[in-house]
Design a protein that fits this description.
CATH topology of the largest domain: Rossmann fold
Distance between the termini: 41 Å
Shape: globular
Strand content: 15-25%
Number of strands: 13
CATH architecture of the largest domain: 3-Layer(aba) Sandwich
Structural class: alpha/beta
CATH superfamily of the largest domain: P-loop containing nucleotide triphosphate hydrolases
Number of domains: 2
Helix content: 25-40%
Length: about 325
Protein backbone atom coordinates (compact mmCIF):
# COMPACT_ATOMS: atom_id res chain seq x y z
CA UNK A 1 0.00 0.00 0.00
CA UNK A 2 0.95 3.65 -0.21
CA UNK A 3 1.68 4.77 3.32
CA UNK A 4 -0.62 7.42 4.84
CA UNK A 5 0.82 10.92 4.80
CA UNK A 6 0.08 11.34 8.51
CA UNK A 7 2.65 8.62 9.26
CA UNK A 8 5.19 11.38 8.66
CA UNK A 9 3.55 14.21 10.62
CA UNK A 10 4.15 14.83 14.31
CA UNK A 11 1.14 14.70 16.66
CA UNK A 12 -1.42 14.00 13.93
CA UNK A 13 -4.89 13.37 15.47
CA UNK A 14 -5.27 9.98 13.76
CA UNK A 15 -1.86 8.84 15.01
CA UNK A 16 -2.67 9.94 18.55
CA UNK A 17 -5.98 8.10 18.38
CA UNK A 18 -4.24 4.90 17.29
CA UNK A 19 -1.35 5.18 19.75
CA UNK A 20 -2.89 2.75 22.31
CA UNK A 21 -3.28 0.13 19.58
CA UNK A 22 0.34 0.65 18.56
CA UNK A 23 1.40 -0.21 22.12
CA UNK A 24 -0.41 -3.54 21.87
CA UNK A 25 1.39 -4.12 18.59
CA UNK A 26 4.70 -3.25 20.27
CA UNK A 27 4.08 -5.84 23.01
CA UNK A 28 3.25 -8.45 20.37
CA UNK A 29 6.49 -7.73 18.50
CA UNK A 30 8.56 -7.87 21.69
CA UNK A 31 6.89 -11.09 22.79
CA UNK A 32 7.49 -12.75 19.44
CA UNK A 33 11.15 -11.77 19.40
CA UNK A 34 11.61 -12.96 22.98
CA UNK A 35 10.03 -16.31 22.08
CA UNK A 36 12.82 -16.85 19.57
CA UNK A 37 15.57 -15.61 21.89
CA UNK A 38 14.63 -17.98 24.76
CA UNK A 39 13.96 -20.99 22.54
CA UNK A 40 10.16 -21.16 22.59
CA UNK A 41 10.21 -20.77 18.82
CA UNK A 42 12.75 -22.59 16.68
CA UNK A 43 15.53 -20.74 14.86
CA UNK A 44 16.79 -22.54 11.76
CA UNK A 45 20.54 -22.32 11.16
CA UNK A 46 22.07 -23.01 7.77
CA UNK A 47 25.53 -24.27 6.79
CA UNK A 48 26.06 -21.30 4.44
CA UNK A 49 26.27 -17.55 5.14
CA UNK A 50 22.90 -15.80 5.34
CA UNK A 51 22.54 -12.08 4.56
CA UNK A 52 19.20 -10.55 5.50
CA UNK A 53 18.17 -7.25 3.91
CA UNK A 54 15.18 -5.44 5.33
CA UNK A 55 13.79 -2.39 7.04
CA UNK A 56 11.73 -1.45 10.07
CA UNK A 57 9.28 0.82 8.26
CA UNK A 58 6.47 0.14 5.83
CA UNK A 59 6.79 1.60 2.35
CA UNK A 60 9.57 1.45 -0.19
CA UNK A 61 13.15 2.09 0.86
CA UNK A 62 15.19 0.52 -1.96
CA UNK A 63 15.70 -3.00 -0.59
CA UNK A 64 15.30 -4.87 -3.85
CA UNK A 65 17.92 -2.87 -5.83
CA UNK A 66 20.29 -3.45 -2.92
CA UNK A 67 19.60 -7.20 -3.02
CA UNK A 68 20.43 -7.20 -6.74
CA UNK A 69 23.66 -5.29 -6.04
CA UNK A 70 24.59 -7.71 -3.23
CA UNK A 71 24.09 -10.71 -5.50
CA UNK A 72 26.59 -9.30 -8.01
CA UNK A 73 29.01 -8.31 -5.26
CA UNK A 74 28.92 -11.79 -3.72
CA UNK A 75 29.54 -13.35 -7.12
CA UNK A 76 32.65 -11.20 -7.45
CA UNK A 77 33.86 -12.60 -4.12
CA UNK A 78 33.60 -16.18 -5.35
CA UNK A 79 30.20 -17.07 -3.89
CA UNK A 80 27.25 -18.69 -5.65
CA UNK A 81 24.35 -16.75 -4.13
CA UNK A 82 20.74 -17.79 -3.99
CA UNK A 83 17.97 -15.34 -3.16
CA UNK A 84 14.87 -15.97 -1.09
CA UNK A 85 11.81 -13.85 -0.51
CA UNK A 86 8.24 -14.15 0.63
CA UNK A 87 6.64 -13.88 -2.81
CA UNK A 88 4.38 -11.07 -1.64
CA UNK A 89 1.04 -10.95 -3.49
CA UNK A 90 1.88 -14.26 -5.15
CA UNK A 91 -1.25 -16.41 -5.37
CA UNK A 92 0.36 -19.82 -5.73
CA UNK A 93 -1.35 -22.54 -3.71
CA UNK A 94 1.90 -24.48 -3.42
CA UNK A 95 5.14 -23.33 -1.82
CA UNK A 96 8.09 -23.16 -2.27
CA UNK A 97 8.23 -21.83 -5.82
CA UNK A 98 11.50 -21.76 -7.74
CA UNK A 99 11.45 -18.52 -9.72
CA UNK A 100 12.81 -17.94 -13.23
CA UNK A 101 12.71 -14.84 -15.46
CA UNK A 102 9.69 -16.43 -17.17
CA UNK A 103 7.71 -17.11 -13.97
CA UNK A 104 4.21 -15.70 -13.61
CA UNK A 105 4.30 -12.74 -11.20
CA UNK A 106 0.68 -13.48 -10.30
CA UNK A 107 1.90 -16.74 -8.74
CA UNK A 108 5.24 -15.76 -7.19
CA UNK A 109 5.08 -11.97 -6.85
CA UNK A 110 6.49 -9.18 -9.00
CA UNK A 111 9.70 -8.59 -7.01
CA UNK A 112 10.67 -12.26 -7.31
CA UNK A 113 10.47 -12.12 -11.12
CA UNK A 114 12.44 -8.85 -11.29
CA UNK A 115 15.21 -10.31 -9.11
CA UNK A 116 15.38 -13.48 -11.21
CA UNK A 117 15.62 -11.40 -14.39
CA UNK A 118 18.28 -9.02 -13.09
CA UNK A 119 20.59 -11.41 -11.21
CA UNK A 120 20.54 -14.73 -13.07
CA UNK A 121 20.73 -16.34 -9.61
CA UNK A 122 18.62 -19.16 -8.19
CA UNK A 123 15.55 -17.54 -6.61
CA UNK A 124 12.95 -19.15 -4.35
CA UNK A 125 9.70 -17.63 -3.08
CA UNK A 126 8.07 -19.02 0.05
CA UNK A 127 6.45 -17.37 3.08
CA UNK A 128 8.47 -19.91 5.10
CA UNK A 129 11.95 -18.39 4.70
CA UNK A 130 13.94 -21.33 6.16
CA UNK A 131 12.12 -23.69 3.81
CA UNK A 132 12.93 -21.45 0.83
CA UNK A 133 16.61 -21.40 1.81
CA UNK A 134 16.78 -25.17 2.26
CA UNK A 135 15.12 -25.63 -1.13
CA UNK A 136 17.81 -23.59 -2.86
CA UNK A 137 20.64 -25.33 -1.04
CA UNK A 138 19.23 -28.78 -1.87
CA UNK A 139 18.26 -28.03 -5.47
CA UNK A 140 20.93 -25.66 -6.69
CA UNK A 141 24.60 -24.85 -6.62
CA UNK A 142 24.24 -22.30 -3.81
CA UNK A 143 26.73 -21.47 -1.05
CA UNK A 144 25.26 -18.18 0.21
CA UNK A 145 21.69 -17.01 0.88
CA UNK A 146 20.40 -13.46 0.51
CA UNK A 147 16.97 -12.84 2.03
CA UNK A 148 14.97 -9.94 0.61
CA UNK A 149 12.85 -8.18 3.25
CA UNK A 150 13.50 -10.70 6.02
CA UNK A 151 14.51 -8.53 8.97
CA UNK A 152 11.50 -9.55 11.08
CA UNK A 153 11.61 -13.23 10.08
CA UNK A 154 13.53 -14.46 13.12
CA UNK A 155 12.95 -18.14 12.33
CA UNK A 156 15.90 -17.87 9.93
CA UNK A 157 19.26 -17.34 11.63
CA UNK A 158 21.35 -14.71 9.93
CA UNK A 159 25.06 -13.98 9.79
CA UNK A 160 24.72 -10.43 8.47
CA UNK A 161 21.82 -8.00 8.87
CA UNK A 162 21.57 -5.02 6.54
CA UNK A 163 18.89 -2.45 7.34
CA UNK A 164 17.72 0.01 4.69
CA UNK A 165 16.35 3.45 5.59
CA UNK A 166 14.52 6.03 3.50
CA UNK A 167 16.76 9.05 4.03
CA UNK A 168 13.96 11.55 3.39
CA UNK A 169 11.22 10.02 5.53
CA UNK A 170 13.42 8.08 7.96
CA UNK A 171 11.25 6.86 10.88
CA UNK A 172 8.31 9.15 10.21
CA UNK A 173 6.43 10.18 13.33
CA UNK A 174 8.38 7.62 15.37
CA UNK A 175 5.30 5.53 16.18
CA UNK A 176 4.69 1.84 15.58
CA UNK A 177 1.91 0.44 13.41
CA UNK A 178 -0.91 1.34 13.03
CA UNK A 179 -0.19 4.82 14.45
CA UNK A 180 3.02 5.22 12.44
CA UNK A 181 5.24 3.50 9.87
CA UNK A 182 7.44 1.46 12.24
CA UNK A 183 7.35 -2.34 12.29
CA UNK A 184 9.76 -2.32 15.24
CA UNK A 185 11.14 0.33 17.54
CA UNK A 186 13.72 2.59 15.91
CA UNK A 187 16.34 1.30 18.38
CA UNK A 188 16.28 -1.90 16.33
CA UNK A 189 18.71 -0.16 13.96
CA UNK A 190 21.47 -0.48 16.55
CA UNK A 191 21.32 -4.28 16.24
CA UNK A 192 21.87 -4.34 12.46
CA UNK A 193 25.39 -5.02 11.21
CA UNK A 194 25.15 -2.44 8.43
CA UNK A 195 22.71 0.42 7.87
CA UNK A 196 22.20 1.73 4.33
CA UNK A 197 20.35 4.97 3.71
CA UNK A 198 18.59 5.81 0.47
CA UNK A 199 19.06 9.58 0.55
CA UNK A 200 20.43 11.83 3.27
CA UNK A 201 22.91 9.80 5.31
CA UNK A 202 23.19 9.85 9.09
CA UNK A 203 26.15 9.01 11.34
CA UNK A 204 27.39 5.45 10.89
CA UNK A 205 25.25 4.86 7.79
CA UNK A 206 26.25 4.02 4.21
CA UNK A 207 24.78 6.07 1.39
CA UNK A 208 22.71 4.58 -1.43
CA UNK A 209 21.79 6.59 -4.50
CA UNK A 210 19.39 5.37 -7.15
CA UNK A 211 20.41 6.07 -10.73
CA UNK A 212 18.56 5.64 -13.98
CA UNK A 213 20.15 5.85 -17.40
CA UNK A 214 18.20 3.37 -19.54
CA UNK A 215 14.60 2.71 -20.58
CA UNK A 216 13.41 -0.57 -22.10
CA UNK A 217 10.42 -1.26 -24.36
CA UNK A 218 8.15 -4.01 -23.01
CA UNK A 219 7.32 -5.42 -26.45
CA UNK A 220 10.44 -5.01 -28.58
CA UNK A 221 13.15 -4.95 -25.92
CA UNK A 222 14.56 -1.79 -27.50
CA UNK A 223 16.76 0.20 -25.13
CA UNK A 224 16.88 3.97 -25.13
CA UNK A 225 18.82 6.32 -22.85
CA UNK A 226 16.71 8.21 -20.35
CA UNK A 227 17.98 11.39 -21.95
CA UNK A 228 15.96 10.48 -25.08
CA UNK A 229 12.79 11.38 -23.17
CA UNK A 230 13.88 14.88 -22.16
CA UNK A 231 10.97 17.29 -22.79
CA UNK A 232 8.73 14.37 -23.85
CA UNK A 233 5.34 14.08 -22.12
CA UNK A 234 4.84 10.57 -20.70
CA UNK A 235 2.36 8.83 -18.45
CA UNK A 236 4.48 7.86 -15.44
CA UNK A 237 3.07 4.75 -13.73
CA UNK A 238 4.28 3.51 -10.35
CA UNK A 239 2.80 0.89 -8.06
CA UNK A 240 5.29 1.41 -5.23
CA UNK A 241 5.31 2.07 -1.51
CA UNK A 242 6.82 5.50 -2.29
CA UNK A 243 5.89 6.33 -5.92
CA UNK A 244 6.83 10.00 -5.55
CA UNK A 245 10.54 9.07 -5.54
CA UNK A 246 10.12 7.41 -8.94
CA UNK A 247 8.30 10.41 -10.38
CA UNK A 248 11.04 12.73 -9.16
CA UNK A 249 13.72 10.65 -10.89
CA UNK A 250 11.95 11.16 -14.21
CA UNK A 251 11.29 14.84 -13.62
CA UNK A 252 14.88 15.54 -12.59
CA UNK A 253 15.96 13.97 -15.90
CA UNK A 254 13.84 16.55 -17.73
CA UNK A 255 10.94 14.23 -18.63
CA UNK A 256 7.50 15.85 -18.74
CA UNK A 257 5.43 13.68 -16.41
CA UNK A 258 1.75 13.00 -15.86
CA UNK A 259 1.76 11.14 -12.54
CA UNK A 260 -0.26 7.94 -12.06
CA UNK A 261 0.41 6.44 -8.60
CA UNK A 262 -1.05 3.03 -7.81
CA UNK A 263 -1.05 0.89 -4.69
CA UNK A 264 2.19 -1.01 -4.03
CA UNK A 265 2.19 -4.34 -5.93
CA UNK A 266 -0.95 -3.32 -7.84
CA UNK A 267 -2.31 -5.99 -10.21
CA UNK A 268 -2.73 -4.10 -13.47
CA UNK A 269 -5.33 -4.56 -16.16
CA UNK A 270 -5.25 -2.90 -19.57
CA UNK A 271 -8.07 -0.58 -18.53
CA UNK A 272 -5.90 0.81 -15.70
CA UNK A 273 -3.52 2.18 -18.31
CA UNK A 274 -6.00 3.35 -20.94
CA UNK A 275 -5.21 7.06 -20.90
CA UNK A 276 -7.02 7.86 -24.18
CA UNK A 277 -4.07 9.49 -25.89
CA UNK A 278 -0.90 8.46 -27.71
CA UNK A 279 1.64 9.55 -25.11
CA UNK A 280 4.07 6.78 -24.10
CA UNK A 281 3.74 5.02 -20.76
CA UNK A 282 6.82 4.91 -18.52
CA UNK A 283 6.59 2.47 -15.62
CA UNK A 284 8.82 0.76 -13.09
CA UNK A 285 10.37 -2.62 -13.84
CA UNK A 286 8.30 -4.15 -11.03
CA UNK A 287 5.14 -2.93 -12.75
CA UNK A 288 6.34 -3.97 -16.19
CA UNK A 289 6.56 -7.70 -15.44
CA UNK A 290 2.80 -7.64 -14.78
CA UNK A 291 1.90 -5.79 -17.99
CA UNK A 292 3.73 -7.82 -20.63
CA UNK A 293 0.63 -9.77 -21.70
CA UNK A 294 -1.34 -6.68 -22.78
CA UNK A 295 1.41 -4.12 -23.49
CA UNK A 296 1.92 -2.49 -26.87
CA UNK A 297 5.00 -0.70 -28.17
CA UNK A 298 4.10 2.49 -26.27
CA UNK A 299 4.95 0.76 -22.98
CA UNK A 300 8.41 1.39 -21.51
CA UNK A 301 10.02 0.77 -18.15
CA UNK A 302 12.84 2.55 -16.39
CA UNK A 303 15.78 0.36 -15.46
CA UNK A 304 17.05 1.44 -12.03
CA UNK A 305 20.50 0.77 -10.62
CA UNK A 306 22.22 2.04 -7.52
CA UNK A 307 25.50 3.58 -6.44
CA UNK A 308 26.79 2.90 -2.94
CA UNK A 309 29.50 4.49 -0.84
CA UNK A 310 32.84 3.00 -1.85
CA UNK A 311 33.54 1.61 1.60
CA UNK A 312 30.27 -0.33 1.73
CA UNK A 313 31.65 -3.09 -0.51
CA UNK A 314 34.64 -3.39 1.83
CA UNK A 315 32.31 -3.61 4.83
CA UNK A 316 30.34 -6.45 3.21
CA UNK A 317 33.58 -8.29 2.39
CA UNK A 318 34.81 -7.98 5.99
CA UNK A 319 31.49 -9.20 7.36
CA UNK A 320 31.49 -12.23 5.07
CA UNK A 321 35.07 -13.06 5.94
CA UNK A 322 34.12 -12.97 9.62
CA UNK A 323 31.47 -15.68 9.11
CA UNK A 324 34.15 -18.26 8.20
CA UNK A 325 31.57 -19.97 6.00
CA UNK A 326 32.90 -19.75 2.51
CA UNK A 327 35.33 -18.29 0.01
CA UNK A 328 36.04 -14.58 -0.08
CA UNK A 329 38.20 -13.68 -3.05
CA UNK A 330 39.82 -10.35 -2.31
Amino acid sequence: MQTPTWFYKKSHPVALLLWPVSQLYRLTVLGRRMAYSIGLKKIHRLPVPVIVVGNITVGGTGKTPLVIWLAEQCKSLGYKPGIILRGYKGESQEWPQLVTPESDPALVGDEAVVIARRTNCPVCADPDRPNAARTLIENGDVDLIISDDGLQHYALARDIEIMVIDGARRYGNGMLLPAGPLREHRKRASHADLVVTNGTVGVGEYGLRQKATTTVNLVTGERRPLSFWRYVLVHAVAGLGNPQRYFRILEEAGVEVTRHPFEDHHDYTSSDLDFSDENPIMMTEKDAVKCVDFADDSYWYLELDIDLDNNFADAVTRALRFTNKGPVNG
